[in-house]
Amino acid sequence: MNDQRSAAEPAAAAVAVPEAVTALEGAGRSWADRRTALAPIALVVAGGLSVQFGSAVAALLMPKAGALGVVTLRLAAAALILLVICRPKLRGHSRADWGTVLAFGVAMGGMNTLFYLALDRIPLGIAVTLEVLGPLALSVFASRRLISVLWAGLALVGVVLLGGGGFDRLDPLGAAFALAAGAMWAAYIVFSARTGRRFPQADGLALAMVVAAVLSLPLGIIESGAKLTVPSTVALGAAVAVLSSVLPYTLELMALRRLPAPTFAVMMSLEPAIAAGAGFLILDQALSTTDALAIALVIGASVGAVRSRSGPAPRREA
């Protein structure tokens, strides 16, 4: 009897006191707001896990098809899958829409090609650490605050540690490819957000993937030729496409509709750690203590950059 009374008291109070109703509704809204805020973060993390383990699988495929051949297989398979799933409409888009898709496709193709060329020369975790400097630079430029420059300096210390005083330890060309991939990654973030606003669902992504695939096709054919038609190679290429392109890019496009580009960029701070884990588990690429410290510094710089951003997130165009 006392239990029934105790259970009934909150409900009675809610009916009798309007403030109680407001508080209960506010609590419900607060939980809903938190779930809404966490949803795009979960999408980005899931995309990061998928793309880095997909990159590890791609590294296993490189001896069979070459770096450029793997890029071609990945982008071509991803384009076909997305075209079938999305069936994007080709009519009703402005010249500016098509220009955005073209730029997005060029950024995507360049990012993938440069990163895989780097992955063919340096370990996965280190390649991603260098690549993530592109999104970090985007965040620093967007924030325009002195503290962000300090975080960028911390990231630079990490890069110097990775180089061990000179990038000859890492293969200078591989490091250069990774840094260039980072610049294309920053462009990818900007144009992915713009594409998401201009095209419904993942239509823009599908069309941009076609652009990237067409651009990479001649390079893959020149390097790998008939190797691209071996059934086992094609099957692995399709798996890489799903893990490294279709799934993560779709998740990221969905996230960017609800996150400003600078916030998304610094969330990429998790990528080096995920990549290092994938490299260790799949490719047996163990990191030295110095390399691990360098990666930790870059991750810390990225986390610091996102925490130092103050004020409400800027509204994106509808």
Describe this structure in words.
The chain has 318 residues and is mainly α. Helix content is 82%, strand content 0%. It contains 13 helices and no strands. The radius of gyration is 23 Å and the shape is globular. Mean pLDDT is 78; it is low at 1-25 and 310-318.
Keywords:
disordered N terminus; 13 helices; globular; mainly alpha
Helix content: over 70%
Q: How many DSSP H or I helices?
A: 13
Distance between the termini: 56 Å
Query: Can you write the helix and strand succession as a string?
Result: HHHHHHHHHHHHH
Tell me about the biggest sheet?
A: none
Q: Strand pairing plus helix content: what structural class?
A: mainly alpha
User: How much of the residues is beta strand, in percent?
Assistant: under 5%
Mean pLDDT: 78
Global morphology: globular
Number of strands: 0
The poorly predicted ranges are 1-25, 310-318
How big is the Rg?
A: 23 Å
Topology record:
Elements: H1 2-16, H2 18-65, H3 67-86, H4 95-119, H5 124-131, H6 133-143, H7 146-163, H8 172-198, H9 203-224, H10 231-256, H11 261-267, H12 271-283, H13 289-308
Helix pairs in contact: 1-2, 2-3, 2-10, 2-12, 3-4, 3-9, 3-10, 4-8, 4-9, 5-8, 5-12, 6-7, 6-8, 6-11, 6-13, 7-13, 8-10, 11-13
Task: Describe the structure concisely.
This protein is mainly alpha-helical.
